[in-house]
Amino acid sequence: MVQKAKILLVDDRPENLLALEAILSALDQTLVRASSGEEALKALLTDDFAVILLDVQMPGMDGFETAAHIKRRERTRDIPIIFLTAINHGPHHTFRGYAAGAVDYISKPFDPWVLRAKVSVFVELYMKNCQLREQAALLRLQLEGGGKGAIGGGKEPAGLLAELSARLAAVEEQAEALSKQLDDDSADAAAVATAAHLERKLTGLRRALDALEPGAGGAASVPSQN
After folding, report:
1. What is the pLDDT of residues 55-98, one digit of tens each?
2. Strand locations in the chain, DSSP E?
3. CA distances from 7 to 4, 13, 46, 155, 202 (A)
C-alpha cells in the first residue's frame, strides 16, 4: 500500500480550513489542520509534510513569522510553503512572502482548480522523493551486507540487483513523466527546480547500482539523499 502524503493547512478561521479541505479532498491525501502558527510548528515536530498552505494574516504569530521558524529548522526547511492571503499590498508585500521562503503566493479568492493543481505537483514530487529514499536504503543494505542475503528474504545478489534495478526504473519513468508535465504546463520555477534535483539524485543512484553489476570493476558508494 502506498502511504499517503500529508498536507498541512494553516488558518485561524475554521471556515477557511473547511474550504481548503473541500478543494483538496480530490487529491486523496491526508489533510492536517492547524489554527495558528504555534499549532503548525507543533505538528511539524512529529510529522513529515509534502507541502504547507499557510495563511498570512493570523493573530499572534502571523504567516511570515511562522514561515521563518519553519525555514530555520533543519527538519522542515525544505518543505514547500504556499502563502494564502486575503489582502494585497502590492509587489512589496508579495516579495516579503517569497523572501520568507514561500514557493508561491496566492491572493484570495483563488481559483480552486489552480490551487489544487499547484498542490498536486508538490505532492507528486514528495512521493517520488520517498520512493527514491526507499531504493537508496535497499541499495545501502545490499552494500553493507556484502551481497549475502541482506535483504529480499535471502535472494542471491544477482536477483537483488535485478529487483533494485526494476524498482529504480519505475521511479525513473515516473520522474521523467512528471518533468515533462512540468515543462508542458509552464509550472512554477520552484517545482521545476525540485524535479531537476530529484532527477540528479536518481542519476547518481543509477550509477551506483550499475557499478555493482558483475564486471563493473568494484563497489560504489551510495549517493547522499539529503
Report:
1. 988 998 999 899 999 999 999 988 999 999 876 655 666 666 66
2. 6-10, 30-34, 51-55, 81-85, 104-107
3. 10, 17, 14, 38, 25
Q: Choose among 132, 139, 135, 131: nearest CA to 212.
A: 139
Please check the confidence at residue 159 and state whether its pLDDT lies above 80: no
* pLDDT score at 2: 61
Cα–Cα distance measured from residue 138 to residue 151, given in angstroms and rounded to the nearest whole number: 7
The DSSP output letter for 62 is: -
Residue 55: alpha-carbon gap to chain centroid: 20
In angstroms, the CA 57 to CA 11 distance is 8
In this predicted structure, the answer to whether residue 23 has a pLDDT above a threshold of 90 is: yes
Instruction: Say whether pTM exceeds 0.90.
Output: no
Nearest Cα residue to 125 out of 30, 196, 203, 28: 196
Nearest in space to 55 (alpha carbons), one of 17, 11, 116, 94:
11
Cell match 528474504: residue?
153
For cell 504567516, the residue is: 63
What pLDDT score does 151 carry?
Answer: 44
CA 142, distance to chain mean position in Å, is 26
223 DSSP assignment: P
